[in-house]
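My current task is to audit a protein record that another person submitted. What it holds is a sequence and that sequence's fold in token form. Thanks in advance; the entry in question is below.
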Amino acid sequence: MWHLVFVSLHAALATVALVAGVLGLRHPRLLPVHLWSIIGMSLALPFSVVAGWAGFTAVTRPIFVALVVLSCFMVIQAFRANRASRSDAHWRIVVNCLGFNVIGLTTGFLAVAVLRMGAGPAVVILVAVGVPVVGHFCVRWLRNRVVPRTKRAATAPAAGDPITRR
């Protein structure tokens, strides 16, 4: 029962983190929501792993431990994005950090969906590798092409300013 409670809490907070992360690129006031939902998601994950440990195989146990470590790194990225969003000059950091978290969350949701559909290991591996690769190129495109909606972008930036580059 506790495993289900913690997994449900983890999934609900991950959903909030994903939505707040995507919307946070356009609405930086949502970055604290992203941060706190990532923190809650990361706190619920180890409890769900411990509660379900007996039901895991020798292959899945290290995977879940690695996911706990990954969630800690996601907390760091959420803190970095939140802090960098306070300065108009650090929008690339915000895009990189949010991009990492959104890619990780999207990969997690899609991998779980593929597993629940009964797909074989090849499809799961394809999702686990393909989503981050595609996500990397999307983040790269955002970082290099999208003009952030900041106070500074509304004013006339200097000629060599990377914000104006398209």
Observations:
- Residues 2-154 form one domain.
- The radius of gyration is 18 Å.
- Residues 147-158, 161-166 have pLDDT under 50 and may be disordered.
